[in-house]
Amino acid sequence: MIEFKQVEKKYANGTTALKNINLSIEQGEFVAIIGLSGAGKSTLIRCINRMHEITGGQLHVDGVDVGKLKGSQVRRFRRRIGMIFQSFNLVTRTSVIKNVLVSFVPDLPLWRKLTGIFRKDHKIKALEALDKVGILDKAYVRVDQLSGGQQQRVALARTLAQNPDIILADEPIASLDPVTSRMVMDDFKRINREMNISVIMNIHHVEVALEYADRIIGIRQGEVVFDGKSSGVTTAVLGEIYGGRFEEEMSVLTEAGIAYV
Ligand SMILES: Nc1ncnc2c1ncn2[C@@H]1O[C@H](COP(=O)(O)OP(=O)(O)OP(=O)(O)O)[C@@H](O)[C@H]1O
């Protein structure tokens, strides 16, 4: 369970990105965080694995007080939390399987790190992870020969090989076309359902968020202004989250055939 208690995040330049955040996210939930650019979505996600340190309140992940972790404890803690970025963060000039095997590097003795010779069980796990996202046949292809959607699936496989409890995804479909986006979202959904991995996703596409996530957290100027089921997101709620600029979002919803009161 992830618990935010009166969490605040103030950056060194004085910007308050998060104010009085109180949230409780159960294991296995699929949560989408929506809001305008600059609302604090990325900051919120990145506080969970301590990429950003909170400056007020408390943040617990499965009972662990994240703010109190030190040195190697932070590294061990992060092993349980996968992170997916908009830009994939892959080594594009090498093979798919090597990119997935990277997730085992922290567990290896120095000689294996230096020689790049991986254990057989790690190779099997890497291949299994690739199979889970449907790109096993690409294992020995160079990453720069793959499409954007396939590259995001490699990133997802790398995260899965790490055997995480939680996957944080920061705009994972922002650079993908609509069809590929849905394929990647289908992967997230399947992984969430079949493996009971919590997915916390920061996403700009409201219609996709409503279709795939079970729960929506709407953020405005660093504060949670909506927290509830996707089915409870009405035009009034979108107005609250996006202020005067929700009409653009509404037109997307109408095109997607989603009716709102
Ligand atoms: N490293 C930083 N130093 C100072 N201010 C920052 C830093 N990172 C983000 N901010 C500020 O914190 C606020 C929240 O930013 P954040 O990136 O979390 O928003 P966001 O909702 O994810 O936006 P976007 O959708 O554009 O990615 C913004 O005002 C931003 O300018």
From TrEMBL:
Ranges of residues in domain ABC transporter: 2-246
One Gene Ontology MF term: ATP binding
Cited InterPro entries: AAA+_ATPase, ABC_transporter-like_ATP-bd, ABC_transporter-like_CS, ABC_transpr_PhnC, MetN_ABC_transporter-like, P-loop_NTPase
Membrane in keyword set: yes
Any Pfam family: ABC_tran
Gene3D superfamilies the UniProt entry points to: P-loop containing nucleotide triphosphate hydrolases (3.40.50.300)
Taxonomic superkingdom: Bacteria
Alphabetized UniProt keyword annotations: ATP-binding, Cell membrane, Membrane, Nucleotide-binding, Phosphonate transport, Translocase, Transport
Record-annotated membrane-spanning stretches: none
Protein name: Phosphonate ABC transporter ATP-binding protein
UniProt source species: Cohnella cellulosilytica
Lineage of origin: Bacteria, Bacillati, Bacillota, Bacilli, Bacillales
Gene it is expressed from: phnC
